[in-house]
Amino acid sequence: MPYQQDIPHLEKTTAWLLESQTPSIRYFTLTRIKGLPEDDPEVSEARQSISSSPPVSTILAAQRPEGHWVDAKHIYSPKYRSSHWTMLQLMELGLEPENTQLQKGADSTLAVVQQGKTNYLRLQMTGFGCFWGDWLRYQLYCGNGKDPFIERVIDFLCADIERGGKCRYNSDLPCAWSVARGLYGLALIPERSRDEKIKTAIQQGIRFLLEDHDLLAADYPYDYKAHPLWDKLSFPLFYHADRLFVLRVLKDLNVLDHPGARKTLQWLLEKQSSSGTWRGGSPLSDRTRPFLAKPDGVERWITLHTLEVLT
């Protein structure tokens, strides 16, 4: 994997990220790229600004008093503005786990799935590993790991990864998106707390993504044709995955030294523009909640995430 001095324009690109109007981008640049501690004054200022500034303040303003967004019973639809997607987005934006509104959102989505109000998200059904991986991620982020229902979700995800994320929406074929999202959830379980079942599932997921198939070629099973997202850099993504998202998950799992990951890291490095940034798109931006403060563009998020895995 490239070292920092091997990335062209790193200092210039980092400075450009810190000029962002989006506090989340400044915060993650300071902590994940520059490696500054949480008690650093710049870090503290950026983190405190997240909840009170757009885009997060705009999203929080749309939350209902009971803790949900749009509909109390339907956390999955409409895409991508209901509670499930909004919680995922707020976590990606770096809102503090202790934030009262974020906690209420986590509790409300936990209550809905506990009560089985959403029939097509029942744990007894195969598929939807992508949903449960994301759901587990933000529940753990919010500190709900000790709830008994969480253990059922972890069991489900481990079994889902073992079967390759097979899903009826992919003609009952294994699904790389489901495996990647399942690992995304499991990755937030501290290593010291992972039992053999979780460790085995993580290893099986890594093997599926990097050994049974080729991340750079994205030759995963599909029902008609490979999804075009694999060849692009995008943000935000929700139940989807692209090469960059998979690399981010692999970094969480400390396996970026795997040969299958290193090839893709080199591909990513070579996509840097002459100005030192990485360009990408936001294919779902017309359906999601705001994720940028004007005049920022999605290029800043793509560049941030790229530097996260390259440094």
Strand and helix map with partners:
Elements (H helix, E strand, L loop, with lengths): L9 H9 L4 H11 L7 H12 L3 H6 L21 H10 L7 H15 L14 H13 L6 H15 L13 H11 L9 H17 L30 H10 L6 H11 L28 H13 L1
Helix pairs in contact: 2-3, 2-13, 5-6, 5-7, 7-8, 7-9, 8-9, 8-10, 9-10, 9-11, 11-12, 11-13
Helix coverage percent:
40-55%
End-to-end separation in angstroms reads 8 Å
Element order, helices and strands?
HHHHHHHHHHHHH
SS-based class = mainly alpha
The count of β-strands is: 0
Which runs of at least 5 residues are low in confidence (pLDDT < 50)?
A: none
Which outline best applies?
Answer: globular
Q: For the report, how would you describe the main beta sheet? A: none
Number of helices: 13
Overall pLDDT level = 95
Radius of gyration: 19 Å
Strand content: under 5%
What would your notes on this structure say?
The chain has helices at 10-18, 23-33, 41-52, 56-61, 83-92, 100-114, 129-141, 148-162, 176-186, 196-212, 243-252, 259-269, 298-310. The protein is an all-alpha fold and 311 residues long. The chain has a domain at 1-52 and 271-311. Helix 2 (23-33) runs antiparallel to helix 3, helix 5 (83-92) packs across helix 7 (129-141) and helix 7 (129-141) packs antiparallel against helix 8 (148-162). The longest helix has 17 residues, at 196-212. The model has no long low-confidence stretch (mean pLDDT 95).
